[in-house]
Amino acid sequence: MPDPESRAAPGAVISVSRLSKTYATGHSALKDVSFDIRRGEIFALLGPNGAGKTTLISIVCGLVNATAGTVRVDGHDIVRDYRAARAAIGLVPQELTTDSFETVWATVSFSRGLFGKKANPAFIEKVLKSLSLWDKKDAKIMTLSGGMKRRVLIAKALAHEPHVLFLDEPSAGVDVELRRDMWRLVRELRESGVTIILTTHYLEEAEEMADRIGVITKGELILVEEKATLMRRLGRKELTVELVAPLAAIPPALAPFGLELSDGGTHLTYVYETCASGAEEEGDTHSIADLLALLSAEGIAFRDLHTEQSSLEDIFVSLVRRDQ
User: Fold this and answer.
1) CATH architecture label of 4-226
2) What are 277-320's pLDDT values in tens digits?
3) Radius of gyration for the chain, computed over Cα atoms and rounded to the nearest angstrom
């Protein structure tokens, strides 16, 4: 009978439970990692180099054995039911490992056959066209650019019609145009029912596409959160007030707001946290309305207001530093 802890949560296509990996050198790459990935979502796994991202993906894909813990993919245990679990997964590795002397058509078709799928030229044609590879179908891979080779890797991963697609640093070494094309393709795959898990160093990629975000550092998963909720809960907002006349110093009455004076006394900056509802934190008794009213009471006129919210990159850096 399966271990209750290894059962996937309702709606989960991947369930990772208490996963650890220690190499023969003694290096602990993963430490008691547990989380679920929902069917049909785009999940971004973020972390600095050496955090454990690739080790985690390699274990889920059956390429590396875990020291402890369980993983289920589409209801199948990756150890006890390896073939069924692996058949549900498409993997696009970070490295450009392709058969240089094979044609695009041959290598993608071969990848489909590796998983015991019957030949389906119409499907292979569809995949190649979706990746703008159709006009390269008879080209040898050795003649392709790096960006085109990246597309071939994605085509190979999709050839056997997986339910789950892992993209390990999919935009590494590709130009902005190709990166945008890949974002479009990822959205289309999600709309067709494929679950996408990506690791990336391009945080704007995660911010653009992900439904949920996991942050891993030093082998530990320190956070899994809805992207929008994460950005509201941990984001900072800055209100910059552009003054009509410069101030020599901040009046004592404004001290509780922790304002900063800049640009020769012409700009006041107020930094405040946002909570999940999008409002200011409950513990912050000084609202923007209070600030503006006090400026008026002090006879300080302003001509404009600007607000700016922290990006996912700001949040990511703060989370990793907090865990160090």
Assistant:
1) 3-Layer(aba) Sandwich (3.40)
2) 344 444 344 677 788 888 888 889 888 887 766 555 666 666 66
3) 25
